[in-house]
Amino acid sequence: MQQLIHRIWYQHHWAKWLLLPLSWLFGVISMLRRTLFNLGIEHATTLPVPVIVVGNITAGGSGKTPTVIYLIELLRQQGYTPGVISRGYGVDIPGCLAVNAGAKATEVGDEPAMIVARTQVPMVVGAKRVDAAHMLLANNDIDVIISDDGLQHYALARDIEIALVDGERRYGNQCLIPAGPLREGLWRLNSVDFVINNGGPAYTNEVLMSLTPAPLIQVDNTLTQQFDSQQAVVAMAAIGNPQRFFNTLSQLGYKIANAVEFTDHQAFDSAQLHTLSKTHPLVMTEKDAVKCRDFAESHWWYLPVNAKLTPEFDHALLSQLQQVAQTKKGLSHGI
């Protein structure tokens, strides 16, 4: 199914025309929802600390999680104490739930589990981001909130909006869901503060971001051996754009015997992956690795990546954040 959707959205498959009426309906519903907030019939909740939303206008992955991790580290370097909220996609969470170190992806979602494993940032997940933000503030001494996704979650007022775009696939056929990948029309980009292009080439007014790979790490985190780069591997990915991951491995010189795509956020079981890795080491993304920690075998590996953005972006973001913090009577930090 994911391959068919990819062809419709990004390869001009004829089935787009069958889905366009549903896209028009989606557009009308989205417009009515936005109008309710614009007219004040529905009210957005303003928080006492700055809120940075990291999202996109397309369905599927575009690099939000590495960007969130980058922002956490950047803000900490400047003396801020950030916290993160997220939907916890793919899991049924009653109310809100704090994400603790070692949290299982089946309980909080794969991206929140990965973010906290990497950064130990205070984080709360919940379907209603406003409630998640209130819980985060009530239980942690933080002065900035980063929302992992949520560009279309208008119930939460935001001070800075960052939209990610996949530099390879961009906006596909530029149709709304389900005929295309768009959650909102391209006009929405005119109102965000920053558009970050993951992978390039960057267009005018876009900030180029690159993802720098690090050496492979064992999924079970035993660190008992180093990877033998002469081995062929089975590569697997359950992310929005698996081919990007496979291309990265190839560019790094890894020999891929088989590349296996899964649906974004898919859960795994030990038998399924044991079968895949019978004859070759298994290499996966870091987001997939957090779902496999409890049953990982020693020859399963993951590829960490780190976001790299420009000094100009850092300066512009920090300057805007400082202004927001002062307006909200938060702490003022030097840049």
How does this structure look, described?
This protein is globular. Strand 12 (282-285), helix 9 (286-289) and strand 13 (300-303) form a beta-alpha-beta unit. The protein is an alpha/beta fold and 335 residues long. The protein starts with a helix and ends in an 8-residue tail after the last helix. Helices cover 33% and strands 21% of the residues. Helix 3 runs parallel beside helix 5 (110-119). Residues 330-335 have low confidence and may be disordered. It has helices at residues 2-10, 16-38, 64-77, 105-108, 110-119, 129-139, 242-251, 270-276, 286-289, 311-327; strands spanning 51-55, 82-86, 96-98, 123-126, 144-148, 160-166, 194-198, 206-213, 217-218, 232-237, 255-261, 282-285, 300-303, 305-308. It is built from 10 helices and 14 strands. The chain has 2 domains: 8-81 and 143-210 and 308-327, no CATH class; 215-303. The strands form 2 sheets. Strands 3-4-2-5-1-6-7-8-14 form a 9-stranded mixed sheet, with helices on both faces.
